[in-house]
Amino acid sequence: MWESPSFTEIKKLRMGLRKLSSENLGGSYRSVFRGQGQEFEKVREYIIGDDVRHIDWNVTARTGEPHLKVFREERNLTLQLVVDISKSQCFGSNQVTKSSIAAELAASLAWIATHSQDQIGLSVFSDHVEESLRPQRGKNHIAKVIQLLKKHQSNGRQTNLAVAIDHTMQLCKKHSLIFIISDFECSDYEQKLRHISQKHDVVCCHTYDPGEAGILPQGYLHMQDAEKETPFFWPAISHTPILKEAFTQNMQRTEQMIRQCGSDYLALSTTDSVMRKLTQFIHERGKVR
Fold it and tell me: Which of 8, 94, 98, 126 is packed most tightly, with the most Cβ within 10 A?
């Protein structure tokens, strides 16, 4: 089941994000993530040293004096959220699951983008793309995005990120900011991730839970693979170091591969504060750029 924050949590998040985005995070977001291209602003008289390629010949001919077209950087973005809702995302060793933290992050990004007058799109996927909203702006659209994050129940079990990336490439024809939120419990997506990262600004948000690193109670645990539905018993305490080492190595491999593909990387634990982590990431990215 696709678990997401309650209505009260979403409402609280909305109020907190409005305050935060208006004070500092929104400004950082706009300066770090920018649209691509230039937008015509006005015409002014030509000054020696100006780029002659921008001369407005129609106005120049009409006035008899050389005039120049002035452009400004287009700041409006298209934010595309690609959210993994496969069964492995339902894991949580405490009260918060990976799916909940993914939904909260997606909702946070959507509200920030709305504050910045950006278009927002959303796709939710498991072993296939289950539902998708084309990028739009406005309060009615953001309500649909939040509703989809809250209510959609997955009918697929496994994770197929390659299919989700293909779908995103079809949706995003112009340069976009794409957040892929997943636990990346899949393979065979490296080539497609490299391809989409060449055309768009991609951030991969890696959701995880401390329980996956072997922080488990003593004794034998009756467990089941959420995606393959295979039951098994696991002697938790004796294998904790093995689990921790394997988990750490897998996290490092995933981060290295994602960065080599040209995407940014953000690790997000079920114990993290989404707003604090997101604020830190945006500020750190601004320093690098």
Answer: 98
- Return the CATH number at 166: 3.40.50.410
pTM, rounded to two decimals: 0.73
Q: How many CB atoms lie within 10 A of CB 130?
A: 20
Closest CA to 122 of 84, 163, 81: 81
What's 69-95 look like in SS3? EEEEECCCCEEEEEEECCHHHHCCCCC
Distance CA 206, CA 65 (A): 57
CA dist., res. 232 & res. 280, Å (int): 39
Q: Could you say which DSSP state residue 187 is in?
A: -
Write out the residue range of the structural domain in which residue 267 sits.
7-31+76-288
Q: Tell me the Ramachandran region of residue 184: left when phi exceeds 0, alpha when psi lies from -120 to 50, beta otherwise.
A: left
Beta pairing partners, 180: 82, 204
Per-residue pLDDT of the chain (289 residues; tens, 9 = 90+): 334 444 454 455 455 444 444 444 555 666 666 555 555 678 888 888 777 888 999 999 999 999 988 766 555 678 999 999 998 888 887 788 999 999 999 988 888 888 778 899 999 999 999 999 999 988 899 889 988 988 777 777 789 999 999 999 999 988 889 999 999 999 899 999 999 999 999 999 999 998 887 655 555 555 555 556 666 555 555 456 777 888 889 999 999 999 999 999 999 999 998 888 888 888 777 666 5
Residue at a domain's end among 21, 54, 73: 73
Tokens of 258: 């994602």
Quote the tokens at residue 11.
């409402």
The pair of structure tokens assigned to 12 is: 């609280």
User: Do 47 and 155 lie in a common domain?
Assistant: no
